[in-house]
Amino acid sequence: MASEDSCAELLVRLSDMGSVMKAVKRDLPFTGSRAGLTLLVALGRCGPLRMGELAEMFEIDQSVISRHVADLEERRLVERTPNPRDGRSWYVRLAPDGKRVTEELLTHVRHLLASTLDDWTDEEIIELSGLLARFRTSFDARRARVAHNPRTPHPAKGL
Amino acid sequence: MASEDSCAELLVRLSDMGSVMKAVKRDLPFTGSRAGLTLLVALGRCGPLRMGELAEMFEIDQSVISRHVADLEERRLVERTPNPRDGRSWYVRLAPDGKRVTEELLTHVRHLLASTLDDWTDEEIIELSGLLARFRTSFDARRARVAHNPRTPHPAKGL
DNA sequence: TATTGTTATACTCTATAACTATA
DNA sequence: TATAGTTATAGAGTATAACAATA
């Protein structure tokens, strides 16, 4: 069972990761918005996705996705194809330029990370990845519990 | 030595933590900006800090800190005292209300985390905290190396 | 002359609401 | 009527540059 002390410590460490990722993203050689970059990477990992799926994945509004995708499309980094099963929706996929850019970016970050972790063993890195993946699973499970059993006020949106 | 594969995996996991922290912050019972909240927590952890120190800590511009602190001061959550050793600078500290609010928030998040990790052992949590702390250390060390030995183009700011 | 902090301005990211077109 | 996506508008967060006061 998790103690308050160990949770407080973990909280600090997790917050710290925010600064780290921010620094990584800021120094990335990409002439476009950080949000667009994030979408490109997601499309590279997951393959074609609908607008709504992207919105759900990042928990941001569809309207925001709509504008970012429009921007990426204008810059020839993604392409849209109509969903043959539903005339309302679209699939977004990486265009050739987008694929190239995304691969370059990922290579860049992987090198950065490898250089950062040059005194770590592979086992240690895998250990950390595993714990983070498990943390994510636990977090999602808790959210599902709360959503199904809403004794807490509400999702409490604007607070 | 870190392999490309393990780094790629870790990269995905670290990005994931961004979404998690965003969800945590969004559901927090705080009637104010997320940025202000972050500053309050930092002041609670570190004690009185100068404006410039806050800017450096979060790697954002002094002008931004200036406006957030002005807002928090207006809402009686922080207080400013002149630095007796340097007439240009100010110390920012939690006001009584700010101290109360900060403690309530931290208690809330600790409970949230404890509920999330109810099937983790304390040792596992401490293990994860330790690896994250070490990651942060490695990351900072790499940045210092690059800064002192700038064979890469430059800090590459606007990119 | 350099540094601490402020103000003015503009850009990025996001949310809300009103809209369209399909289902 | 419900849903997928768009557009308009507003708010939060940040960076840049010009500035005041102090070192």
How many separate helices of chain A?
6
CATH topology of the domain at 30-119 in chain A: Arc Repressor Mutant, subunit A
Beta content of chain A: 5-15%
How far the N terminus sits from the C terminus of chain A, by CA atoms, comes to 29 Å
Q: Please state the second-level CATH architecture of the domain at 30-119 in chain A.
A: Orthogonal Bundle
CATH superfamily of the domain at 30-119 in chain A: Winged helix-like DNA-binding domain superfamily/Winged helix DNA-binding domain
What is the residue-mean pLDDT of chain A, rounded to a whole number?
89
Overall shape of chain A: globular
Oligomeric form: homodimer
- Total count of strands of chain A: 3
- Report strand order across the widest sheet of chain A: 1-3-2
Largest sheet of chain A: 3 strands, antiparallel
Structure classification of chain A: mainly alpha
Which consecutive residue ranges of chain A, at least 5 long each, have pLDDT under 50?
150-159
What order do the helices and strands of chain A follow?
HHEHHEEHH
Largest interface (CB < 8 Å): A-B, 64 and 64 residues
**What gyration radius of chain A follows from the Cα positions, in whole Å?**
19 Å
Overall CATH class of the domain at 30-119 in chain A: Mainly Alpha
Helical coverage of chain A, percent range? 55-70%
